[in-house]
Specification:
The relative contact order is 0.04. By secondary structure, the protein is an alpha/beta fold. It contains 46 helices and 42 strands. Strand 22 (499-504), helix 19 and strand 23 form a beta-alpha-beta unit. Helix 6 (160-167) packs across helix 7 (175-189). The protein is globular and about 135 Å long. The protein is 40% helix and 18% strand.
């Protein structure tokens, strides 16, 4: 690891020299060179500087800069680029690095890729150089990763690559302002922060100038009063101290003294310093002396020493106030031996929490404390109040680490007397320590947070007349995406009669908007670590937590009795770091909703075991507004892109696409970039093209929302070139205004766009394809009215406030306690698995192992119903100790085998599976169970099929087409009998899938499977007709697919259509004679051979759009325009289909001309075939299709399989219309039906 130094200030020069000398001793352990940048402030110590430079130059490279001159940006840049440092240390004024600190930073940097590494610091006494090692700690920055103002004052290790980029953008201001600007931008630029919880840095900015630790025996020239706090542990402390100290006033105060008694004691105090000591302590004169001597420094107003138990366990070593959790103690419960060498433990430092066992304070601070709010004296309350008074007077409360006092008490007392009066007093006087300044939060706290029954409450529904109570957790309140969307949701809930309270980790300007809604806002930096919020939540109907940043809150709310909605909108950029902290599993009271398909896809990548649904945000419809701003005076086609200039937002991709455009088309356009500069490198790309083509490219800095809408009205097409963007709001706003949009496939919006119909999509990070799409928009610009109209329809369908309100309220109603009995771990259901088998093959063992590895479910048994396997299937099942039921092959049917297995099942739920499906994760079955846990009226749940890697194009398209028909692509749905029952609405709600179907055993026993085929669909239809609910999970899948010959698809389509005729009274059919069916089949196969020849001549399959156009045209040319051609020959490469075709051809030749109705029959077959082909083409158009997966032979096979499927369906239609004993096709019907 290589390092560079930026060292600033003159006071530290001598010590820096000492440091360098010590550092040279350990140089062998430091890989790489050490560069030093020295800033000079004046010429007073020119000799020191000269001497220092000479000595530094002997061993190190350095650059000297004068602070009185302008900021030497270029010199520093050259210096940084010249040295080999990977990290640069910036030290603030009068600061230097301890010799061991570089090693600590180096070790940390080696194991991390953080942009910023920072540590705590302490203050050095430079007033007396003979007192090296005497130091005083600043307030410790625990968990301050996001407290940027604090980071600006800390000494920080920065990545040099980030520093060089940011430094290039800094203006040449005076040096001090430039350094502040540099630090600020580095913080904003960084994505990963890392804190070293060790004290590494010294500073000469001492708040205490004379810290002497050698205590004289006669130190009591400071008058003192020692007040003994009496308790049942009394050990004659008063007598022992009194016998060793003369001239000191002693008083006693009973632990349970009244406010009146306290007033009397206060009137007796004579000393300038009051030392409160519990009689549980063992202390001596030296301890008291050391504490008292600290009060020589006027800024110190109170002191508490280190307190341990008699066996040396730490009770108190200082602490900090953490919002509503009140106090957090350092080193609590640790053995003193473990930390005896820790600088922070032994130091004298600023402190926020005084010990109630031993504390000393100035008399004026003691007199300021009121105890009228409690009936009896409470030392803990008193010490807390004392700190508040001291803080109010801007004085210091100190922890004294060099004094250790032992106590009989084994813990630091907490505040047991939690009366509302105490809280009211603290909130009115010191609320800035806890929360933002608004009366609602204060009144909520004082009235409801602290009750005599020690439970936490917020306003009751009965008192406020509200519908439900919701507590909302946010990681911040900035004016950015997730907090704004959360504000919209809370606003809708308030408008619909909900009562809401917001708790945020960080403050921000958005709190004012919540305040306007009448929502109490509580800022608590401890919410991620404070378990008390779990108890507070008990008195709400449900909770909402926003973004993956709230993962610790989610963990704490798990296993509670409150439903929680976890709303995740995050881009992938945050997952690599945060995924290590996300829970591996979620408790059943946590319900995950994603802000779009892309956000859900990213979540699944890092936590595939999470079950989630979609909840899109809403945007208020403002319509078109008139504007006086005109950016397009030359009537060019205006393209716009809005967003923070950064690598993630991908403005550089658009910049490259503009470069690659044909000059004439580029000249016809105006490209407008709008956004605050984040990445200098990306901005440079934008600036470069703006300079090269100033007439065609313009850049504007960030704007207000109103200004943005003015620009939207000037833009003809909006572009989102993001590399990673869950749901870009500016694209949604553009759609609202009927502006056509071009989106990267790595955006949430792309999941809603049908390419070329309601918008345009290009491959992520592909500037060439983006350039091509832009040119396509230019060419079709005058014909985009339909795209504009459908773009607006996306907004209306998915993002309107009405839609958002409807979706949100259905979720919150579902989550409220009145509508949901949460399932705790002890209430989980048992599951039996039933699998029919016959020669299950190699994947069978994998399936069993996957099922046995399932987590968070009680898998009772696996039952195998085998119908004559001879490949070792039964032996494998017995090896796993499965329950095996054997039947004869002739006994098998899909219904009989499953019903038989169910009769032997002991679980509360039965999971029916097929022998060759494979669950995709160890949490798969848990995700299948989740809908049932969340809604008991759901009696059956089906998963979906995903194709295996080797699956052919037609198989993939069929599986995708089924999900599309059921409306569950990348989503899940609950199914019930439709209010307006039609054939299609019933089909779309009656789906069960035996590939993976979980069903309540008692319900199943009443209904059972029937029929030899489509038994699952029949069961689903009967269930929803009787009022039950089903769930179909598009996001919970098994791997299940086969590459079959064409004849398989013909047979499957035939038996499936025949089953539909049995199940549905209104199954659609076509009135067509057997002769018409014969003629149609032969004609179709003759046309398919011509289509295959045309596809075979297709040389380039890399262009998706070209493939789709080519096939669509080939089908139209060969079929639609050829319905009157004479039949010559019909054949297929599939032997079984070819045999059928030859039989049909013989029958066809026997028909006379009057029996031939070829025009109509051929149109029937063309229409059916076209629908199957269109399904394949739509799959090719979908985002799930990858061009590299396709070749000419797959396309040829797909059109062949499409023909087989068409023929199978229409032969079933012929069976429906013409089945009789003298049927010409009865032998063919029987042949096809055999073996399915």
């Amino acid at each position: 690891m290589h390092y560079g130094f930026l060292n600033k200030g003159r006071n530290a020069m001598k010590l820096l020299l000492e440091q360098l000398k010590e550092l040279s001793k350990t140089q062998a352990s430091l890989p790489g060179e050490l560069g030093i940048l020295i800033f000079e402030t004046d010429n007073e110590e020119k000799k020191i500087y000269s001497s220092l430079k000479r000595q530094i130059s002997q061993n190190y490279r350095y650059l000297s800069c004068n602070l009185n001159l302008s900021f030497p940006k270029q010199d520093i840049l050259n210096f940084l680029k010249d040295i080999k440092a990977e990290y640069i240390i910036i030290l603030h004024e009068d600061t230097y690095l301890l010799p061991h600190s570089l090693l600590e930073f180096s070790k940390t940097a080696y194991s991390s890729n953080a942009d910023v590494i920072f540590s705590d610091e302490y203050i050095y006494d430079f007033q007396d150089e003979n007192k090296h090692g005497q130091y005083f700690f600043k307030q410790r920055y625990l968990r301050c990763v996001y407290r940027f103002n604090d980071l600006l004052g800390l000494s920080v290790l920065w990545k040099k690559s980030s520093m060089v980029g940011v430094l290039s953008s800094i203006d040449d201001l005076n040096c001090e302002k430039s350094l502040i600007e540099l630090r600020t931008q580095l913080i904003n630029h960084a994505t990963q922060f890392l804190q070293i919880n060790k004290i590494l840095l010294l500073s000469s900015r001492a708040l205490i100038s004379n810290m002497q630790y050698i205590i004289s025996e006669n130190v009591f020239h400071i008058s003192a009063t020692i007040i003994i706090i009496k308790s049942e542990f009394g050990k004659d402390l008063h007598k022992r101290l009194n016998s060793t100290i003369s001239g000191v006033q002693f008083l006693e105060i009973p632990l349970n003294c009244s406010a009146e008694q306290w007033k009397n004691i206060l009137a007796q105090i004579e000393g300038e310093i009051c030392v409160f000591v519990s009689d549980t302590c063992i202390c001596n004169i030296e301890d008291i002396n050391k504490i008292l001597y600290l009060f020589k420094e006027e800024q110190i107003a109170a002191v508490s020493p280190n307190i341990t138990t008699l066996d040396d366990y730490i009770i108190y070593a200082g602490g900090t106030i953490r919002g509503l959790s009140f106090s957090e103690y350092y080193y609590l419960g640790r053995k003193r031996e473990e930390v005896k060498n820790d600088i922070f433990f032994n130091a004298i430092r600023e402190n926020q929490v005084l010990s109630s066992i031993v504390f000393a304070a100035r008399k004026w601070a003691v007199e300021a404390v009121e105890i009228k709010n409690i009936a009896k004296f409470d030392a803990k309350y008193f010490s807390m109040e004392l700190f508040f008074q001291i803080k109010k007077m801007q004085k210091l409360s100190i922890y004294c680490g060099n004094v250790c006092i032992k106590s009989h008490m084994g813990y630091e007392p907490s505040i047991h007397t939690r009366k509302s009066g105490i809280i009211q007093h603290w909130m009115e006087n010191y609320r800035e320590l806890f929360l933002i300044d608004d009366s609602i939060s204060t009144s909520i706290l004082e009235e409801h947070f602290f009750k005599d029954n020690k439970r936490y409450y917020l306003p009751r529904v009965e008192q406020l007349g509200k519908k439900h109570r919701v507590i909302v957790f946010s990681h911040e309140l900035s004016l950015t995406g997730a907090p704004i969307v959360l504000h919209q949701a809370v606003k809708l809930l308030i408008q619909n009669g909900y009562f809401a309270v917001l708790v945020s980790l960080k403050d921000g300007p958005l709190y004012k908007e919540f305040y306007k809604l009448g929502v109490p806002v509580i800022i608590d930096e401890s919410i991620e670590y404070n378990d008390s919020w779990r108890n507070i939540c008990l008195d709400f109907d449900f909770a909402i937590a926003s973004t993956i940043c709230m993962h610790r809150v989610i963990e704490r709310l798990g296993k509670s009795s409150i439903p929680v909605m976890w709303w995740i909108h995050d881009a992938e950029v945050g997952y690599p770091y945060l995924s290590q902290f996300l829970p591996n599993k979620l408790e059943t009271n946590i319900k995950v909703y994603c802000g779009g398909g892309y956000a859900q896809k990213v979540l699944k990548k890092y936590r595939p075991q999470y079950y989630s649904e979609i909840l899109l945000y809403g945007i208020e419809d403002i319509g078109k507004k008139k504007t006086d701003i005109h950016v397009n005076l030359k009537k060019k086609i205006v393209f716009g892109i809005v967003g923070y200039i950064s690598e993630r937002k991908g403005q550089d991709i658009l910049a490259h696409a503009i470069k690659e455009m044909v000059p004439e088309k580029r000249n016809a356009c105006l490209f407008i970039f709008i956004g605050k500069i984040g990445s200098k490198q990306v901005y440079d790309e934008v600036e470069a093209i703006a300079k090269e083509w100033p007439e065609n490219v313009e850049y504007y800095n960030e704007m207000s929302h109103d200004e943005l809408y003015d620009f939207y009205n000037q833009i003809d097409c909006m572009i989102c070139s993001s590399r990673d963007d869950p749901m870009p709001a500016f694209i949604t706003e553009a759609m609202m205004l009927s502006i056509p949009c071009i989106c990267s496939e790595n955006t949430g919006t792309a999941h809603l766009i049908e390419d070329g119909k309601n918008g345009f999509i290009y491959r992520n990070n592909d500037s060439m394809e983006l350039s091509s799409v832009i040119e396509k928009v230019i060419d079709q610009f005058d014909c985009l009215d339909d795209v504009r109209k459908k773009s607006r329809q996306i907004y209306e369908q998915f993002f309107s406030m009405e839609k958002f309100e409807s979706n949100l309220l259905s979720i919150t109603d579902f989550l409220s306690k009145k509508n949901l009995e949460l399932i705790n771990s002890e209430n989980r259901f048992t599951v039996s698995v039933v699998i029919p088998t016959f020669n299950a093959g190699d994947n069978f063992n994998k399936l069993i192992e996957c099922l046995l590895a399932q987590k968070e479910v009680e898998l009772l048994e696996i039952i195998i119903v085998d119908s004559g396997s001879n490949d070792g299937t039964v032996e494998s099942a017995l090896m796993y100790n499965l329950n095996v039921i054997q039947i004869k092959p002739k006994e098998f049917s899909h219904s009989y085998a499953r019903n038989l297995g169910a009769e032997h099942a002991g679980g509360q739920y039965i999971l029916f599976m097929v022998q060759d499906a494979l669950p995709t994760s160890e949490g798969w079955l848990y995700n299948m169970m989740l809908p049932i846990y969340q809604d008991y009226s759901i009696v059956a749940v089906s998963g979906s099929d995903s194709p295996r890697r080797e699956a052919d194009l037609f198989t993939r398209a069929q599986l995708w087409g089924h999900l599309k028909f059921m409306n569950v692509i990348n989503s899940d749905k609950i199914m019930e009998y439709p209010n307006l029952p039609t054939y299609f609405s019933i089909r779309q709600n009656a789906n069960l899938n035996d590939v993976a179907c979980l069903i309540n055993k008692e319900i199943f026993k009443r209904y059972k499977y029937r029929f030899d085929f489509a038994e699952d669909l029949d069961m689903g239809l009967r269930l929803i007709k009787d009022g039950y609910k089903l769930a179909l999970l598009g996001n919970v899948r098994v791997l299940h697919s086969h590459n079959r010959p064409p004849y398989y698809y013909l047979k499957r389509a035939f038996v499936e259509k025949r089953a539909f005729f049995k199940i549905f009274d209104n199954e659609p059919f076509v009135i067509l004679s057997e002769q018409g069916h014969i003629e149609g089949i032969l004609w179709l196969y003759e046309r398919v051979e011509e289509i295959k020849k045309r596809i075979y001549s297709l040389k380039d399959t890399s262009d998706k759009i070209l493939i789709i156009k080519y096939i669509r045209k080939a089908v139209a040319d060969e079929c639609k325009d050829s319905v009157e051609t004479l039949l010559v020959d019909a054949k297929s490469e599939d032997v079984n289909i070819n045999n059928i075709l030859q039989k049909l051809l013989e029958k066809y030749k026997k028909l006379n001309d009057t029996e031939r109705s070829y025009v109509f029959s051929r149109k029937v077959f063309y229409k059916e075939y076209q629908s199957v082909i269109e399904m394949i083409l739509q799959y090719l158009e979908s985002n799930q299709f990858k061009v590299e997966e396709i070749d000419v032979f797959q396309l040829i096979n797909a059109v062949e399989y499409a023909a087989a499927t068409t023929v199978g369906k229409l032969l079933a239609n012929s069976w429906k219309m013409n089945a009789r004993e003298d049927s010409q096709l009865s032998s063919i019907y029987d042949e096809i039906e055999r073996g399915v």
